[in-house]
Amino acid sequence: MTKLSWLEIPSDNDFGLDNIPFGIFSVKGHKRAATRIGDSLVDLNAIQKAGLFSDVNLPEDIFNQDTLNDFIALGKATTNRTRARIQELFSYDNGELRDNESERLNVLWGLYEVEMHMPVKVGDYTDFYSSREHATNVGTMFRDPNNALLPNWLHIPVGYHGRASSIVVSGTPIHRPKGQTKADDAEVPTYGPSRLLDFELEMAFVVGKGNELGTSISVEDAEDHIFGMVIFNDWSARDIQKWEYVPLGPFLGKNFGSSISPWIITMEALEPFRAASPKQEPAVLPYLEMKKDHNFDIKLQAIIETEKGDSVTVSNSNFKYMYWSMAQQLAHHTVNGCNMNVGDMCASGTISGPTPDSYGSMLEISWKGTKPVAMPDGTERKFILDGDTVVMKAFCEKDGKRIGFGEVRTKVLPAK
Ligand code: MN
Question: What distance in Å separates the CA atoms of residue 347 and residue 234, rounded to the nearest whole number?
Answer without folding.
Answer: 8
